[in-house]
Design goal:
- The complex is a heterodimer of chains A (253) and B (352).
- With 253 residues, chain A is mainly alpha-helical.
- Chain A has helices spanning 16-19, 22-37, 44-60, 65-71, 76-88, 103-129, 132-141, 146-175, 186-213, 230-252, and strands at 93-96, 99-102.
- Helices cover 69% and strands 3% of the residues of chain A.
- In chain A, β1 and β2 (99-102) form a beta hairpin.
- With 352 residues, chain B is mainly alpha-helical.
- Chain B has two domains: 1-216, Arp2/3 complex 21 kDa subunit ARPC3; 247-269 and 294-352.
- In chain B, β3 and β4 form a beta hairpin.
- The longest helix of chain B is centred in the C-terminal third of the chain and has 44 residues, at 308-351.
- Chain B is globular and about 75 Å long.
- The chains are: A mainly alpha (253), B mainly alpha (352).
- The interface between A and B is large, with 84 and 69 residues.
- Chain A: The chain crosses the membrane at residues 43-60, 72-89, 109-127, 233-251.
- Chain A: It comes from Streptomyces regalis.
- Chain A: Its main location: membrane.
Chain lengths: 253, 352
């Protein structure tokens, strides 16, 4: 895919992290998140160390801190949920600033906030250093069913097309003086959604015919086979292994 | 409802991950049956549609707005397997690309939204369509009810997972009340939009709506002023479906046996939500013992076996066996009656 098709989260660059084979990065990210989730929540310092590790990766990948922090905003709904936890959870309670808070609720809120934020940051780093096409190739290399990878790649490729079609429909509605302001207008919007489905499905049929006429027989040819050397694997897995050391320390201390 | 990392503990996430992988494998097979070799482009485009339609905002009132979750919509438009597959792919891509929903919580998210959401919606929808008269209006009504039920069902599934492997001890009754309450409201909005959208598609291309296949009328020819059934073309499909239905049935049986007999070892031993609420509120004592309390399987354990895990697992296996026997018996009886009825009717209808 050309430059115009890069997704919004991707940041073009030539850092060592950008250059790693995609499946090593996927495996490393996943392993890192698993390690983070299985760390005991009482080991608060461990989460600080994880954050330092991620900051190190971001520095090597030359992803600016502002970019990373802005992407973390996707987590906000769950922050709201976490803030509520100390008020509704059971167990012994402590007085903080005149409010009665549950101890286990405070631990729970901390748990979700710390692990959730680290998970989101790791995914954001992965997405901002890996191109879409590479991600899909990486998923295929990690032995996901080829059909699933094909479906995912079609979804990604046509996601923008369908979204643009939806935007054109909105512009067409608005240029005819339509303004959705309440439940009364759902009928119109639902008709747009229905039309969008028909267009998407028919486009799928056309795409299939175009593929068949170019010799498609159930599997996509892999042109750019990616392989990873032992050095690249060890470089990528340095992150989860460092995290694992921290996690083991957290359990033993 | 995208669950982030750290919300559900690691063992539960792993188990739901296995469940989700199995479900994706089953729906890949099912989707191939529904779409054959067109699976990749069509399922991909439908997934892109779901992804786009989740961004379509429906204003509610005073600046607030909601959007579709799309489980019921996908199930009714393209069938349960393709629908579940598309939702799973959307969740996978949202997790990897947009950090929306944690990577370790992927299994939890797929189980809630793709398996429970789509599955419940489709079962309710099929049940209603069977009962209601075969009109377009009843398809729309059935899709409304299916989405009203499916969204709180997914919320309930989340509550269940939270109870098994939640990392905070919030009382399960509170979680259930809050989740189901909020999602009942969301479900009503979802249902209205889903029903309107299905109605819009049926009005233009009824052949594209998987759930409305029964509405198709057989082609009739008027020969000499009399309506005659046109000869049907292509009747090879049901045979293929039957063989794979058997594998699906065996797979489902093995899975439930494994879940009931083995995984239940690891299920929490604490009382369930209702029992807990009952204990807290003190009405547990007043409840009379169930009539079967003395029976062999009382409280999900086999009586004369001491090892708690073994006994619980055995009870699970026996329970699954009994359910399968009862279910198959009912299904068999219903099907036999229906085929008898059909045999009675068909000569009359051809003579008319």
């Amino acid at each position: 895919m050309g430059a115009g098709h890069a997704h919004r989260l991707y940041r073009h660059g030539h850092s060592p992290v950008h250059g790693l084979p995609p499946h090593t990065k996927l495996a490393a990210t996943f392993a890192f998140v698993v390690v983070v989730v299985s760390t005991p929540r009482e080991a608060m310092w461990a989460f600080g160390l994880y954050a330092v590790l991620l900051a190190l990766v971001a520095y090597v990948a030359r992803v600016p801190a502002g970019f990373l922090l802005k992407r973390l905003l996707i987590e906000v709904p769950f922050v709201a949920f976490a803030v509520l936890m100390p008020f509704v959870a059971e167990g012994e309670r402590v007085e903080v600033l005149g409010m009665s808070l549950s101890v286990s609720g405070l631990w729970g809120a901390w748990n979700v906030l710390a692990k959730g934020t680290l998970g989101v940051a790791a995914s954001v780093l992965l997405a901002s250093t890996t191109e879409l096409r590479e991600l899909l190739l990486g998923l295929q290399r990690l032995k996901l069913p080829p059909l699933l990878v094909q479906i995912a790649s079609f979804m990604i490729r046509y996601g923008d097309v369908i979204t643009d079609e939806m935007r054109r429909m909105r512009i067409a509605r608005e240029s005819r003086g339509f303004e959705a302001s309440g439940v009364r207008h759902w009928g119109v919007l639902a008709k747009s959604a229905g039309a969008l489905f028909i267009r998407s499905y028919e486009r799928g049929e056309r795409v299939h015919l175009a593929m068949v006429s170019r010799g498609y027989a159930g599997s996509m040819p892999v042109i750019d086979e990616v392989t990873a050397s032992r050095a690249q694997w060890s470089y990528a897995l340095a992150l989860p292994f460092a995290a694992l050391v921290v996690c083991l320390l957290g359990w033993s201390l | 409802m995208h669950v982030p990392d750290g919300f559900i503990d690691a063992p539960t996430s792993a188990v739901t991950g296995v469940v989700a992988a199995a479900a994706v494998a089953v729906s890949l097979r099912g989707a191939r049956r529904e779409l054959d070799e067109r699976t990749a482009p069509l399922a991909g485009l439908v997934a892109a549609f779901i992804f786009a339609v989740q961004m379509l905002n429906f204003p509610v009132a005073a600046g607030t707005s909601g959007h579709l979750l799309g489980g019921a919509l996908a199930a009714i438009l393209v069938g349960p397997f393709t629908g579940a597959l598309c939702i799973s792919v959307v969740l996978l891509m949202q997790g990897i690309l947009f950090a929306d929903g944690g990577l370790t919580a992927l299994g939890v998210n797929i189980t809630n939204m793709a398996i429970v959401g789509v599955g419940v919606a489709y079962v309710v929808f099929r049940g209603l369509v069977k009962v209601l008269p075969k009109t377009r209006r009843s398809i729309t009504a059935a899709s409304f009810v299916a989405s009203v039920v499916s969204v709180p069902a997914a919320a309930l599934a989340f509550t269940l997972l939270f109870w098994i492997g939640g990392t905070t001890d919030v009382s399960i009754g509170k979680v259930a009340t809050a989740m189901v309450g909020v999602h009942l409201l969301i479900g009503i909005g979802e249902a209205a939009i889903t029903a309107l959208t299905i109605g819009a598609v049926i009005a233009v291309r009824p052949d594209l709506v998987y759930g409305a296949r029964d509405l198709r009328q057989p082609l009739k020819l008027r020969i000499g002023g009399e309506l005659v059934d046109a000869p049907a073309a292509g009747a090879g499909q049901p045979v293929a479906a039957r063989t794979s239905r058997r594998t699906l049935w065996i797979g489902g049986l093995v899975t439930s046996l494994v879940l009931a007999g083995f995984v239940s070892f690891y299920a929490s031993a604490s009382p369930d939500g209702l029992e807990k609420v009952a204990q807290d509120k003190g009405f547990a004592q007043s409840a009379e013992k169930h009539a079967n309390a003395d029976s062999l399987l009382a409280d999900y354990g086999v009586k004369d076996i001491d090892n708690a895990r073994l006994s619980g697992g055995l009870a699970g296996v026996i329970g699954v066996g009994a359910t399968v026997v009862a279910g198959t018996g009912i299904f068999w009886a219903v099907r036999r009656r229906r085929t008898d009825g059909a045999a009675d009717v068909s000569p009359a209808s051809t003579s008319v």
